[in-house]
Amino acid sequence: MENKLQNVDIYQFQQELLNWYYTNKRDLPWRKDQDPYKIWVSEIMLQQTKVDTVIPYFHRFITKFPTLHDLAEADQQDVLKAWEGLGYYSRARNLQNAVREVVATYGGEVPSTPKELGALKGVGPYTKGAILSIAYNQPEPAVDGNVMRVLARILKIEEDIAKPSAKKLFENYVHGLISHEDPSSFNQGIMELGALVCTPQTPMCMFCPVQQHCQAFAEGIEKELPIKSKAKKQKTIPYVALLIKNDKNQYVIEKRSENGLLANLWQFPMVPIDEIGFDHLENWLFNEYGVKIALGSQKGKLKHVFSHLIWQLEIYQAKTTQCQTTDERLKFVEREELESYPFPVSHQKMMKYI
Asked: How confident is the model at residue 345 (pLDDT cuts 50, 70, 90)?
């Protein structure tokens, strides 16, 4: 590690990065103050989601749950509804669980030590480092994809960033580079540089404030770094999604389980069509849920892509004469009521067929 940093004038690198950040930083709502709660919410939202997408969600979420105590006391279904459309819903559930822990254990004050903060549900090394550095101005590394890309180019690091061991390596480099005068701006500066200048496909090296320190630029290999091995191919699963209506104009919706993908969200019933075959769909539904249906016409098709799998959805209308069910997963709800339940994006899109 030392060899990599020996080639960098660390003080000059810090100053050039910080001066650029002070002048060029974007006006983002979570940068208005150093409230650790708001920074925490923003960092969880920003995981695997672009800044422009997050901004309106952040505003709505903070308006609905302005303080840590408000979020701790909220009904989980309301929290999931506020998160609806952002995806990766375990982030919202873990955030609320951790916030409740902060209220119960730390009197509502977000912990400012690495050990206590890192022990909270859903607070990994990156989120811990972001809160400690940005909110509490501590010289802690916060290494995300942007940071790894920037430093892989600056220091010419040729390790595969997809490997779990790479994170630790980059954290060590940040420890050696970070400004102790303004660690908050230093970490945000590297992230901002990765978002605005040192971009994945076509880095704008001519505009880079730390270009003179960049070994990849000096060797003309900035587009070849970082090295990242390909993820496994996603598995595709076909389903029939059923918009089941009864004579009272009520629709059948199903609550997903408390664990796993899209936990605790609501959806229209989905039939794993590959496993049972289309001809047995009505029987399967009755055996699984105790609901008798008459299948109607196909209304549309949807493809929904997750990080590890793909849903191929065929959407069908169906009718039932039932108005209630003994299956605790299901509910009959009025058309107008559907809006109040948290649905994943794929099932929100089905609403247009109702």
From this structure: very high
Q: Which residues of 313-326 are buried (b: 16+ CB within 10 A; e: fewer)?
A: bbbbbbebebeebe
> What values do phi and psi take at 195, rounded to 5?
-80, -35
Are 87 and 50 contacting, i.e. CB atoms less than 8 angstroms apart? no
10: tokens are 């660390």
pLDDT mean over 244-252: 95
Task: Tell me the pTM.
Answer: 0.86
Annotated catalytic, 224?
no
Instruction: For residue 229, tell me if it sits in a domain.
Output: no
Residues 175 and 243 in one domain: no
Q: Does 6 lie in the same domain as 98?
A: yes
Report the 10 Å Cβ neighbour count for 23. Answer: 8
Among 16, 43, 84, 140, which one carries the catalytic annotation?
43
CATH at residue 334? 3.90.79.10
> Do 245 and 219 reside in the same domain of the chain?
no
